[in-house]
Amino acid sequence: MKRILFLLLIPFLFAETATEVEITAEPSHHLVLENETVRVFKVEVAPRSATLMHRHRHDYFSTSLGDAHVSNEVEGKSPVEVKFSDGETRFVAGNFVHIARNLSDKPFRNVTIELLQDEKAHQAASRWPEESGEKTFPGGRSKILFVKDGVRVSEVNLEPGAIVPSHHHDGPHLLVAVSDLDVRSDVDGSGPMPGKFKAGDTKWLPGGYTHTLTNVGKEPARFITLEF
User: Fold this and answer.
1) Rounded CA separation 134/145 (Å)
2) SS3 of 13, please?
3) Domains of the chain, CATH where assigned
4) Which of 4, 121, 147, 222 is 20 to 30 A removed from 134 (C-alpha atoms)?
5) Strand, coil or helix: what is 172?
6) What does the pLDDT look like over 100-141, one tens digit per residue?
7) Pick from 32, 30, 36: nearest CA to 172
8) What pTM value is reported for the model?
9) 67 with 83: CB under 8 angstroms?
10) pLDDT tens digits, 194-225
């Protein structure tokens, strides 16, 4: 009798596990920052484990923290295996449901940045004078990766003691630490501003200032910036 009841329950149990949830209710996604422009999640999926089926309602960027090997299982499509390298940043168009399955023996970690103003982003004409290119300076490099939905994404690498030369931020930008960071921002008209971040930390920064940025730590610094 118990066996018969169990067999009858199987379809209901399967249906429950396949039910989609909002990204804010998905246990591997941890909301760390939200404003009118973005919603930022730290994501960690245990080895050989998977997220719940969840919906991405918005376009988003993801920055991988460490190398990763996952199966992207979008509802209605065949699974696709994807490999990410440490610090790799990708753009993904939203409005789909999927499961992310970790195929490796180490945690799958990333930072997911949702763009909340979808229509505005889709209609935005690019205002960037530079949409690609690389700048080098003593002990460092800044490279524009791409521009999507009006957002310019760049990667910065700094050796200990290296300085990003003076530059201006017209609008706000989001910093995503790929490595641990120990940096100092010297803003024109203000005193030095130290900043320490762990890999995966994020910080929303306002625009309208000019500064230099120095790696005051003992290790190379690597981070991603998303300029809005």
Assistant:
1) 9
2) helix
3) 19-121 (2.60.120.10), 124-227 (2.60.120.10)
4) 121
5) coil
6) 999 999 999 999 999 999 777 777 767 788 899 999 999 999
7) 36
8) 0.89
9) yes
10) 999 999 999 999 999 999 999 999 999 999 99
